[in-house]
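Anyone have tokens for PBP superfamily domain-containing protein? Sequence:
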Amino acid sequence: MNFRCIPALVAVLALNASVLADALVIVVHPTNAIELTTDDVSRLYLGRARTFPNGESAVPINLAEGMPAREIFDQRALSRSSAQLKAYWSKLVFTGKGTPPQEADSHEEVLKLVATNPSIIGYVPASAADERVRVVLQLD
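Reply: yep, here.
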């Protein structure tokens, strides 16, 4: 066994544990006064709605596949596993009926995108949310 890898493994496990313990929050631009339910979020992220409930355009941003926060979001907000969502989107893309949300590589990238565009909706761990965005829903 290679013991040099143990510190890196411990760091990764600690990061994953902190994400798992942290609630996720749905965030929008600070000027966006919309209120959302988990059902609203699900419809947006599954491509079943393209607008917020008030009729304004909505652009969902997903975290990159394999990120712990994305897996938690898939379960808590969409009630599906990552594998189920991959199959869902594959079918829609193949039939030309939809395209999955764009992806961001980090929580910071989600925050920057949301802060610069009132149409974008995203999610981050609650501890990552700051004054650049407005929290509209918490997923425990």
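Strands lie at 24-28, 59-63, 102-104, 120-125, 134-139.
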